[in-house]
């Protein structure tokens, strides 16, 4: 059975043998991923981390002209207040789109609803969203409260689906089914693939390629369009910062690709099942990886010659950036999803830096290739957040720069390490190399700020903890 | 039945507790929730002027309960988490916060917290399921819990005999929800100091558990929003401390004089010793007001206004704008309340400040009310910016969420708050 045929997507742990807790050498982790039944690990001390719900909301907040109904207590949609700010800023600053009619609702479940059920409330909110906004799609997002209560979101939606003329998609995020937050965007991709994209791949546009991303920012989208325009191709970038129309057009593309394979997997696979081949390549960060990515695309579309000329031309523009070796002699720590980490490690080394450690939020069978390129004796932490372990690592290793997607500058600078957050920058493709090098220069100019902040910083971590081994609180799960 | 909310400005009970205790130096929260609960708050708080804390965001300990604990119960996971938190993170006080999931499943967070207390650790618990209310309820709940339970793990601080100053606690300022919370606490301190009053801010810069252990020594509790009343009542019952509820912790000299008068009714303060301070404050305020005089007349500053936000905040602005700038308050829309919006009863004082008083939580409905009122100026959160723009009205951010704003020392109370408002609002009206 195909991935989109399933009514509900199986949790990532069961699909991909995902692990979210590990600290040790890359070599051992690689061996672990080879066995048929993976040794699942847990933390006996943990810090707050992303869950399915928050990752799903992050992605849904960027899709245009939709309504998102969060079926839970008011706090379950609190992050939307922040996401709206981020998106509005991107729209304004980068001119992403002129208007977005998207909105979000909370069913605002109270104590009574946790006992009596909130089905009726859900029905009212969906009708309200439809009548007030006529959105293109309504996404109904589940939370732990409705999951424990066993509220049947699907029946409510099924009934309303007949009355209202737009798709209503249930996003079954409980917040506790999977330990990997990425399962939330997997569920969104599954919903999109199953209910929005026609299963008939007809009327193909031979120059149109789907670029699937759940995390890209608008600057990256712009760079993608620049490259595709130059090559005379059309990039259909979905679903982040996309319209429903763009998502629906996915079945007309000649192929699909991802920037970061592990996050796009569900939709890549789903589209492949309806006859749109997936082109796989390493994340296009740094010139060797960019060439590989573009060459794979070229091979598939049979435009190798054009691609070759394009690469030669573009590489000229970034040569001086790489030659400047801005990271020469610097010790760098990388905290990124495995597929991005692999490319960033290569780029950091190209720029003269030394990678002294890596953190990845999760690891699973989709990362086997990425792990192969890392030094087998290198130490790797698997965990999203879990800054207590990072504090432990930083206390034992000399680190100058910390490269990550998330903004945890407060924590990192307290350790005397200079953060280089890349979440709101474009680091992909050629423009990305320039941006990345500029970020390093900015980071170098942050030395005095960081020193000032860290001088009298009060770290909450006990000295006895930082002396312990980093994996002290990671145990194998007892079944 | 609670109403659904479109584009809400609300977190939950748990979030209110987190945003309050993380503003006490040395306090370590331990969440017993699903993994994302702490992060939801972290993302939301950044648009509420709470940026740095002893423990925050990804650093907050959390049991991160998963399916197994939902099915079989998460009590033993919590025990493990509490025990290990104490080993990993230094804290003067650990606070277990149990969220929706654990409260529905019925995990025993009380006994688990008691276990480490029995071992000599300083810990308390607060049941914080999100379905029991928003962050205002969380503030109210955690403050009451601290008052109730702190004495069981820490002895109250005895009054220092050498310090003859009058001591007051400030209750009702909620970090994040009051986007000016830091500056406001500082300004209250600055204004009351010349009267020989020592202000216990309880939250923010240099505030620790010691400040909370000293609450019992106060001569008076000053309640500046309805969310501090329960705590004041509790302190009265426990320590016989009188309290005053300040209707308008206002901006400008008149409000400050009223505040001092109200305090003087309860405790013996010699207002005359601070006469010079208040005179200087009034003069400085008038001097500031004079600077905008030409603009005031030339650019028609006497605008019609709709104000959206917490009750105490909206009162502050309504009073100031009518009193000093001759603005016309068309409507006040209050966003912090419990229960049904139609059953709220505004006080006489509140009614005297505007033509219409509404209670609303839904951003779309708020926008519709603004549209009907059709004001020239909208004072509210960033969520009201769009409707203001579409009406061609000016917009000035006074309440949560506040996008594109970093507020550290600015305030919207006292003399400084008044001057700051004159400065900032004029800049908006000249655009």
Automatic annotation (TrEMBL), chain A:
It comes from the Bacteria. GO terms for molecular function: oxidoreductase activity. InterPro entries: Nase/OxRdtase_comp1 (IPR000510), NifE-like (IPR049939). It holds the Pfam family Oxidored_nitro. SUPFAM superfamilies: Helical backbone' metal receptor (SSF53807). Residues 60-420 form the Nitrogenase/oxidoreductase component domain. PANTHER family: NITROGENASE IRON-MOLYBDENUM COFACTOR BIOSYNTHESIS PROTEIN NIFE (PTHR42956). This is Nitrogenase molybdenum-iron protein alpha chain.
From TrEMBL, chain B:
GO terms for molecular function: oxidoreductase activity. Pfam families: Oxidored_nitro. Residues 12-429 form the Nitrogenase/oxidoreductase component domain. This is Nitrogenase molybdenum-iron protein beta chain. The lineage of its organism: Bacteria, Bacillati, Bacillota, Clostridia, Lachnospirales. InterPro entries: Nase/OxRdtase_comp1, NifE-like. It comes from the Bacteria. PANTHER family: NITROGENASE IRON-MOLYBDENUM COFACTOR BIOSYNTHESIS PROTEIN NIFE.
């Amino acid at each position: 059975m195909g991935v989109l045929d399933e009514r509900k997507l199986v949790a990532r742990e069961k699909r991909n043998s995902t692990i979210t807790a590990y600290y040790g050498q890359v070599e051992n982790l690689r061996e672990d991923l080879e066995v048929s039944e993976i040794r699942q690990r847990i933390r006996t001390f943990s810090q707050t981390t992303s869950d399915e719900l928050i990752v799903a909301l992050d992605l849904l907040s960027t899709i245009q002209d939709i309504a998102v109904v969060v079926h839970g207590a008011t706090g379950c949609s609190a992050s939307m207040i922040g996401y709206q700010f981020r998106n509005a800023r991107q729209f304004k600053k980068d001119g992403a789109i002129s208007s977005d009619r998207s909105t979000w609702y909370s069913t605002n479940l109270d104590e009574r609803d946790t006992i009596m059920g909130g089905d009726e409330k859900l029905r009212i909110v969906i009708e309200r969203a439809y009548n007030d906004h006529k959105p293109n799609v309504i996404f109904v997002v589940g939370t732990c409260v409705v999951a424990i209560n066993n509220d049947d979101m699907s029946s409510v939606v099924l009934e309303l689906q007949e009355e209202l003329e737009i798709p209503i998609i249930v996003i079954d995020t409980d917040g506790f089914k999977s330990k990997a937050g990425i399962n939330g965007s997997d569920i969104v991709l599954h919903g999109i693939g199953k209910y929005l994209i026609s299963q008939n791949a007809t009327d193909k546009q031979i120059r149109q390629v789907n670029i699937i991303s759940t995390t890209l920012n608008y600057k990256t989208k712009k760079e993608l369009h620049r490259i595709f325009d130059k090559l005379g191709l059309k990039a259909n970038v979905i679903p982040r910062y996309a319209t429903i129309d763009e998502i629906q057009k996915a079945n007309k593309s000649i192929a699909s690709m991802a920037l970061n394979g592990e996050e796009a997997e569900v939709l890549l696979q789903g589209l492949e099942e309806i006859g749109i081949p997936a082109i796989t390549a390493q994340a296009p960060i740094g010139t060797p990886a960019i060439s590989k990515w573009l060459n794979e695309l070229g091979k598939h579309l049979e435009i190798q010659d054009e691609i070759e000329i394009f690469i030669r031309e573009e590489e000229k523009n970034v040569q001086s950036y790489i030659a400047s070796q801005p990271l020469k002699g610097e010790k760098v720590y990388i905290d990124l999803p495995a597929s991005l980490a692999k490319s960033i490690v290569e780029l950091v080394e190209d720029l003269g830096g030394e990678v002294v450690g890596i953190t990845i939020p999760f690891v699973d069978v989709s990362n086997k290739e990425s792990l192969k390129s890392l030094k087998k004796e290198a130490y790797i932490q698997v965990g999203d957040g879990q800054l207590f372990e990072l504090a432990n690592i930083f206390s034992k290793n000399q680190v100058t720069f910390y490269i990550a997607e998330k903004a945890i500058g407060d924590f990192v600078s307290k350790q005397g390490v200079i953060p280089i957050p890349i979440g709101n920058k474009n680091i992909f493709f050629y423009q990305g190399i320039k941006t990345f090098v500029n970020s390093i220069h900015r980071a170098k100019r942050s030395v005095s700020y960081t020193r000032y902040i860290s001088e009298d910083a009060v770290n909450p971590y006990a000295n006895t903890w930082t002396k312990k081994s980093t994996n002290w609180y990671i145990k194998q799960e007892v079944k | 039945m609670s109403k659904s909310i479109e584009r809400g400005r609300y977190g939950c009970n748990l979030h209110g507790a987190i945003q309050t205790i993380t503003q006490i130096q040395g306090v370590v929260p331990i969440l017993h929730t699903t993994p994302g609960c702490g992060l939801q708050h972290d993302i939301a708080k950044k648009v509420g002027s709470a940026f740095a804390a002893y423990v925050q965001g990804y650093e907050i300990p959390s049991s991160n309960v998963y399916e197994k604990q939902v099915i079989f119960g998460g009590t033993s996971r919590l025990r493990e988490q509490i025990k290990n938190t104490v080993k990993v993170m230094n804290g003067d006080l650990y606070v277990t916060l149990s969220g929706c999931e654990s409260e529905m499943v019925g995990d025993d967070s009380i006994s688990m917290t008691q276990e480490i207390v029995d071992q000599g650790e300083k810990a308390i618990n607060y049941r914080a399921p999100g379905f029991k209310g928003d962050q205002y309820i969380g503030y109210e709940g955690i403050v009451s819990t601290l008052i109730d339970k702190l004495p069981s793990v820490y002895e109250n601080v005895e009054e220092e005999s050498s310090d003859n100053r009058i001591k007051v606690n400030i209750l009702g300022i909620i970090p994040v929800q009051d986007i000016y919370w830091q500056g406001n606490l500082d300004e209250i301190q600055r204004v009351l100091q010349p009267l020989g009053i020592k202000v216990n801010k309880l939250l923010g810069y240099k505030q620790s558990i010691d400040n909370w252990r000293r609450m019992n020594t106060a001569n008076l509790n000053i309640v500046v929003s309805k969310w501090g009343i329960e705590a004041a009542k509790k302190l009265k019952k426990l320590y016989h401390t009188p309290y005053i509820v300040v209707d308008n912790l206002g901006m400008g000299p008149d409000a400050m004089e009223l505040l001092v008068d109200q305090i003087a009714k309860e405790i013996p303060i010699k207002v005359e010793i601070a006469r010079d301070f208040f005179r200087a404050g009034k003069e400085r305020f008038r001097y500031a007001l004079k600077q905008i005089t030409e603009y005031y007349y030339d650019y028609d500053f006497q605008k019609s206004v709709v104000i959206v936000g917490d009750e105490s905040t909206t009162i502050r602005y309504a009073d100031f704008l009518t009193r000093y700038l001759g603005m016309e308050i068309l409507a006040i829309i209050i966003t912090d309340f419990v229960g049904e919006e139609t059953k709220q009863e505004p006080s006489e004082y509140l009614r005297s400040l505007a033509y219409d008083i509404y209670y609303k939580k839904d951003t779309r409905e708020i926008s519709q009310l603004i549209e009907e009122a059709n004001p020239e100026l909208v004072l509210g959160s960033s969520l009201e910016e769009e409707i203001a723009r579409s009406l061609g009205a000016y917009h000035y951010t006074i309440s949560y969420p506040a996008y594109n704003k970093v507020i550290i020392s600015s305030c919207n109370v006292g003399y400084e708050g008044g001057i700051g408002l004159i400065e900032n609002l004029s800049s908006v009206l000249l655009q």
